[in-house]
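U., I forgot to send this yesterday:
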Amino acid sequence: MNPMNWLFLKGLARSQAHWDRQPGVFMEHVPGARVYSLDLPGIGEAAERRAPWRVAEIADDLRERFLELRQSGEVDASAPWAILGISLGGMVAMEWLKSYPADFQRAVIITSSAGNLSPPWKRLLPSAGPNYLRAMFAKDVMETERRSLAITTNDLERRDELIADYIEIGKTCPMPLQTIKRQLIAATRWRAPAHLPIPTLFLGTEADHMVHSTCTRALATHFGMPLRMHETAGHEIPHDDPVWLAKQVAGWMGLDA
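Result:
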């Protein structure tokens, strides 16, 4: 099986440390996949970088570091690249493809949305608003994570485990409120381009309690790309069902998972 390098991009207020089980599961079920991650500017390993107000600027910042990664000797330089982004990371991925269509050969966009395709009350469900705001301004890290996970994951059995893991991540990877505000404004302003230059798979879920499921459907329809919907997972499909996600990608690519 020919190898393919994958660049994973997380969403709002999350770093690459928050991918949980997904990279390992992905490489197990998508033959030839090699997963790499970069943090959005202002978060995690890129905390010293200024968080932009626009998705296009986030993409440009990431691409600068992506090109360095490609030339670092840490990756197989002969292997093609694919990009996978969730939520805000998906918006960044689509903007990246618009500006630099030759960088990737495949794309996967998870539970994302666009301002020109879906109204604000679907891009952030009103029912999620109270927990979302309380999470942003909570003084206690445990309360922040409890509120956040209440609207992003549906796996109640793992929620306490994830809260504990995220508290540990937060000790070395803080999420500055100013960065979160800038990311939120960038996401709110973002508009989908007219088309995508490469094959792209859209993944959503019928049980998303943060972003309405029709947002993913609208993107897939707009671009004329394939769509797969989970029945029960939350917004963070990588947390709730990483095997399903990986198998959808493998099947779409015609690989034996």
